[in-house]
Amino acid sequence: MKKTIVAFSRVHPSMLLPYEEKYNIILLTPEHGDIDAQFRAAIHKAHGLIGGNRRLGKVELESAKNLEIISSISVGYDNYDLDYLNSRKIMLTNTPDVLNETTADLAFALILATARRIPELDAWVKEGGWTKSIDESQFGCDVHGKALGIIGLGKIGAAIARRGRLGFGMSVLYSGNSRKPDLEQELGAQYVSQEVLLRTSDFVCPVVPLTSKTRGLIGTQEFAQMKQNGILINISRGPVVDEEALIKALEAKAIRGAGLDVYVREPLPDSKLFKMRNVVTVPHIGSATEETRNAMAARALGNLLMGLEGQRPRDLVNPEVLCGNR
Ligand code: DGY
């Protein structure tokens, strides 16, 4: 009997073509109507799921009695109920590494756009405001030579730090669970407590996965510790930052601004944040380039096929489900 793959997002049909003989492939596409309804109709057939950006837990997966593996096209896996997957012995894989540089590019785009007020001044020019030279109230702040604070110097954090240090002559501070002697040597990165990082950095960038420990990592107390000229850049996950506390800090001018790719609720059609001139907002596009999303999909497909073919997938998030079987 052929196994069934349900591809629910982020996979180009051409990637699946070579596997059509071996697998039943159900590709959910907006052309066929509501994706949620298609998902509910297909899920009971699935041996493997591939896609990204969908919350999956008991309710969504209960009828998926055949399900062996979910291959997520994302590095973060906070969308999945890991305890439930483990209880069902369903493998979960992600796509680390291939998005590090692209996500770091986006972090830097937000640093520059926020510091130099690019979207705000772009809108001003296009709206016909540029009838005389800008005045001081429209000046931005420097990026080069400033202090870049990275909370969680993993691979994406390191890619951001490299851009800051090597491209912009910034000093790099970092906090987190472990010291990174290699990066200290390569970039002169300084390991400090989170409080020292917040008090001394011009740009504060949390780059941590969303877990019970990192939820609300940056809240009222942390904003109070930041420099008044400090800028928060969030490309990790929305709930890592207490959004209400962020809004209050911005309103009170306790910090200079924020560059945001992620939010507590996504998608987010409206928010106070969208009305603030000193906030640059983009709609969760950290990894969203053609090249990187293709690389992520290819890596996820590899993981999926390994799982369905009885091998141990390369990027297995929950090896405990295998109990030494592969
Ligand atoms: C990820 O891979 O986790 C990015 O946030 C894109 O979804």
In short:
The longest helix has 19 residues, at 290-308. 34% of the residues lie in helices and 15% in strands.
Q: What does this 3D model show about the protein?
A:
The chain is α/β, with parallel strands linked by helices and 326 residues long. The protein folds into 2 domains: 3-97 and 290-322, Rossmann fold; 100-281, NAD(P)-binding Rossmann-like Domain (Rossmann fold, 3-Layer(aba) Sandwich), CATH 3.40.50. The protein contains 12 helices and 12 strands. The strands form 2 sheets. Strands 8-7-6-9-10-11-12 form a 7-stranded parallel β-sheet, sandwiched between helices. A 5-stranded parallel β-sheet has the order 2-1-3-4-5, with helices on both faces. Helix 4 (82-88) links the parallel strand 4 (69-72) and strand 5 (91-93). Helix 5 (100-115) packs across helix 7. The protein is globular, with a radius of gyration of 22 Å. The protein starts with a strand and ends in an 18-residue tail after the last helix. (2R)-2,3-dihydroxypropanoic acid is lined by residues 52-53, 74-76, 99, 286-287.
Protein topology:
Blueprint lengths: L2 E5 L5 H4 L6 E5 L7 H8 L5 E4 L6 H4 L7 E4 L9 H7 L2 E3 L6 H16 L2 H9 L20 E5 L3 H14 L2 E5 L5 H7 L2 E2 L2 H7 L2 E4 L13 H6 L5 E4 L8 H9 L5 E4 L18 E3 L8 H19 L18
Pfam families: 2-Hacid_dh, 2-Hacid_dh_C
Protein name: Gluconate 2-dehydrogenase
GO molecular function, one term: hydroxypyruvate reductase [NAD(P)H] activity
